[in-house]
Amino acid sequence: MLQTKEDRSLGELFSELTQGMSTLVRQEVQLAKTEISETVGNIVKNVLLLVVGGVFAFVGFQALMAAAILGLAQTLSPWLAALVVALALLAVAGILVMKGLATLKKQSPMPRQTAETIKEDVQWAKQQMK
Questions:
Q1: Is residue 1 part of a domain?
Q2: Rounded Cα gap, residues 111 and 27, in angstroms
Q3: Which of 26, 92, 93, 102 would give a disulfide with 57, using CB separation of 3.0 to 4.6 Å?
Q4: What average pLDDT does the segment 34-42 reach?
């Protein structure tokens, strides 16, 4: 025979509440893990942009050095070509670094969805205790 809510003992109700809360906590932990994993993935991508930007900056610096050497050794034409290449590489590096930094500044390590559902779960648990 199926018992109604009124027919169950306080111990049974408490046991049911404990099981429900246990399941809820496990689900919240899983949600937090998933959310943090996604956040870390985004951070890794943006750090990669910074690294690529750094590589372009390094190559640009090398080209600037080559331009300076060629400028001292020759007349205008060869070093001017190297200077144009160096400035183009530095422009690309600047764009990549700025994009990576801007995105990283917007990124929050706090698992927002988990925090919201925990608030909802606390409210639900309070209602169940009434």
A1: no
A2: 14
A3: 93
A4: 85
